[in-house]
Amino acid sequence: MLKLFKPAAAIDRLPAEKVDAEYKKLRLQVFIGIFIGYAGYYLLRKNFSLAMPYLQQEGFTKEQLGWALSAVSIAYGISKFLMAMVSDRSNPKYFLPAGLILSAITSLFMGFVPYFTSTINIMFVMLFLNGWFQGMGWPPSGRVLVHWFSVNERGNKTAIWNVAHNIGGGLMAPIAVGGATLFATLYGTSKGSFEGTFILPALVAIVVAIIAFILIRDTPQSKGLPPIEEYRNDYPSNKRETIERELSVKEILFKYVLNNKWVWAIAIANIFVYFVRYGVLDWAPTYLSEEKGFNMNKSSIAYFLYEWAGIPGTLLCGYISDKVFKGRRGPAGFVFMIGVLIAVLVYWLNPAGHPIIDMICLIAIGFLIYGPVMLIGLQALDFVPKKAAGTAAGLTGFFGYIFGSVTANGVMGTVVSKSGWNAGFILLISSCLLAAIVFAITWNVRGQEIVKNN
Ligand SMILES: O=P(O)(O)OC[C@H](O)CO
């Protein structure tokens, strides 16, 4: 591990009368830091898709660009897991901004140096690098969440933090399109300039990384504060013990993550959740234009609504899992996935000529799918001691991206080309059902109760 990333050491405790005020101030500060930091990551997650129409005008085909784009998901899935093992033993104040700056530098190279967008293979390598650096965002955020927020408030706080990615993803398109227009003006061309879709989001992301660096802190103990469990008198088990020493990679991986059946269960659920998340989102423009007669404008509105509907849906899901199901995430995940199943069915069976119903279905799917997406991350944080939290979430991310998202692009594309949209929808519906079943298997599990803290 690089010396720079070394976890911040504990310092002497502050006087008791200062603890409360300092905790309140720093909890808000670190939360804002990871919120805007993770939103910043999403400015650079898929900005390439906004460059694609311009790159098509430069002579690249849809298939070539789709292949290059898949590099982001492949690298991201692997990195979210591997970099999480590094992150669990790193100071998030350095780790999170470092990944964001590296991702921004990759994007700046693609915007400023023509060589890096000159062939599909070079773009694939650049996007792979970008995906890799993108994997440095979730794990340090998870480390901050579990060290500054105790188990009985985590559902709510994780749900609020999780909407950062909808906000970042939602803001990316106008910033990238604004960049294209701005750089077209600077370069004196009448058409949009794809360079700007790389450059402007990257510049904004660098500013975000600096702000995140200023705000984020490592553990409460490194600021002279007690562990969060002691401060809030909220322990994960009756033994009132938590692990506060940094764990070795071997301990994290083999003692707490890979031999935990519940982590495996949610990793498998994540395959199906991500297949639906990206299977619906990435194919919506194509499906709506081919089968429902939507033009690009209407399709992009539907795409936008899908992302933003995720915000209230995620908050509601976190609230329901805390208040109605008393900290059990499985039932909330089950109910939301059944809701997604119904909305996907209507989206499929609604005949062409009723665009409002298609829009409502996409809003409903967006509203409902991001809750389960968030719950899996939350369960991962809950199922292991806090020093292993990023790695557990990283494993679920690996399964979600490599087996869910990548197949949502590749397998869906092949199935739809060979057998038509009905076959594609049967895959989506089956995934909803399988995700619901795995959530149901975790029905009675309260993460904090099964965590092994010794
Ligand atoms: O798909 P990811 O890894 O960016 O995660 C998105 C959400 O934050 C999941 O909780």
Automatic annotation (TrEMBL):
Superkingdom of origin: Bacteria
Segments passing through the bilayer: 26-44, 64-82, 94-113, 159-186, 198-216, 262-281, 301-320, 332-350, 356-378, 390-411, 423-445
Organism of provenance: Fictibacillus macauensis ZFHKF-1
GO MF annotation: an example: glucose 6-phosphate:phosphate antiporter activity
Gene Ontology biological process terms, A to Z: phosphate ion transmembrane transport
Listed name of the protein: Glycerol-3-phosphate transporter
Membrane topology: Multi-pass membrane protein
This protein's record includes keyword Aminoacyl-tRNA synthetase: no
Keyword Acetylation: no
Signal peptide (from-to): none
GO CC field: plasma membrane
Matching PANTHER family: GLUCOSE-6-PHOSPHATE EXCHANGER SLC37A4, GLYCEROL-3-PHOSPHATE TRANSPORTER
Location of the Major facilitator superfamily (MFS) profile domain: 26-448
InterPro entries, per database record: G3P_transporter, MFS, MFS_dom, MFS_trans_sf, OPA_Antiporter, Sugar-P_transporter_CS, Sugar_P_transporter
Family: Belongs to the major facilitator superfamily. Organophosphate:Pi antiporter (OPA) (TC 2.A.1.4) family.
Keyword line: Cell membrane, Membrane, Transmembrane, Transmembrane helix, Transport
Subcellular location: Cell membrane
